[in-house]
Amino acid sequence: MNKLFARFFLKSLLIFSPIFFLGGCLELFTTVTPLTGINVYDAYQISKDERGIYSITKDKFIKTKIQTKILASSGLSNLNVDVESFYGDVYLIGVVPDDEHKTKLVKLAKNTDGVSKIYTYIRFPGDGGECESNLAIMLKLKNSFFKDSIISGTSVRVSVVQCNVVFTGIITDIEQEKHAIWYAKHIDGVRDVYSFLKVMKE
Q: What range(s) does the BON domain occupy (predicted)?
């Protein structure tokens, strides 16, 4: 128990310190949005993340740099775009006004140090309309993950865009992805499910 707490504390210190240094309270602000909802178990995930401390910290720096650029960009908002980074691969997920702003978003991510590849799940306001169930879907899904012993120890991230569920992160077995998709498809209000999950063998 003491070793687990020490590991959790060290990871928390290394992860959250650079976030506040680079982006102030940006990380706390962007995780409570109509798009993504509240990251209920993200603190728990820190101690379970498959990546090492160095990789986690590096990815957090990349994520925060991109979020800071979005904050300073006209027409783009961290309220509508989720940014995730795993081993330098960046995922841009959310809603932007039009194709011009999508290009702008991808460009600012490409021009960020440390970014290897960019993956997008970007939709426009007219693609699916508003979804009042985004937050409810998010909370139900994360609650299911927390209770599932197969998924709870993984670094699966969840975004909900116009009632569509999008997974990003690192898993150690394809069964974890199957469980995640099953839960998402069995939640009322979910329109579609898309997975960027990557398997990394232990």
A: 58-126, 133-201
pTM of the model: 0.77
Going from the N-terminus, what domains does the chain have, and what CATH number goes with each? 52-123 (3.30.1340.30), 134-199 (3.30.1340.30)
Positions in the chain short of pLDDT 70: 1-50, 129-130, 153, 202
Task: Kindly give the pairing relationship between strand 164-171 and strand 155-161.
Answer: antiparallel
Nearest residue to 158 via CA among 179, 187, 137: 137
Asked whether the beta carbons of 83 and 92 are under 8 A apart, the reply is yes
Rounded Cα–Cα distance for residues 126 and 108 (Å)? 24
Structure-block tokens of residue 195: 């997975």
Instruction: Tell me the two tokens of residue 6.
Output: 């020490």
Nearest alpha-carbon partner for 82 in 115, 129, 41, 35: 35
Q: What is the DSSP string of 88-126?
A: TEEEEEEE-SSHHHHHHHHHHHHTSTT--EEEEEEE-HH
Q: Is 53 helix (H, G, I), strand (E, B) or coil?
A: helix
- In one letter, which amino acid is 172? T
